[in-house]
Amino acid sequence: MMFKMMMCKEATHLMSKQLDIPLTFQEKLSLKLHLAMCGACTQCNQQFHLLHETGKHYERLIEQGAGTLPGGGGNNN
Ligand SMILES: [Zn+2]
């Protein structure tokens, strides 16, 4: 095999990472390849983007003083 198959764990790591910082070309490629082969991660990726959008939406609401988030209960694992 030309490309090393990425684990789902690595794939989800890249998904969350790409929301904060741009991925390198190689990271993008590996993620794309994995998503092409893994339906579970494809769904996961969509949810990541949804969550990200929702987060931005709330940030704007808070800035406008139109809403407050229910307290940020930290969940230590
Ligand atoms: Zn996967």
Question: Please, could you describe this protein's structure?
Answer:
- The protein has one domain.
- With 77 residues, it is mostly helical.
- The protein is built from three helices and no strands.
- It starts with 7 loop residues before the first helix and ends in a 14-residue tail after the last helix.
- The radius of gyration is 16 Å and the shape is elongated.
- The structure holds zinc ion.
Compile the SSE list and pairings.
Elements: H1 8-20, H2 25-37, H3 39-63
Helix pairs in contact: 1-2, 1-3, 2-3
The structure holds zinc ion.
Principal-axes geometry comes out as elongated
Number of helices: 3
User: Roughly what is the average pLDDT, rounded to an integer?
Assistant: 84
Report the portion of residues in β strands: under 5%
Small molecules in complex: zinc ion
Given as residue ranges, the uncertain stretches (5+ residues, pLDDT < 50) are: none
The oligomeric state of the chains shown is single chain
Please provide the count of β strands.
0
What's the domain count?
Answer: 1
Brief descriptors of the model:
binds zinc ion; 77 residues; mainly alpha; 0% strand; 3 helices
Short description:
The protein has 3 helices and no strands.
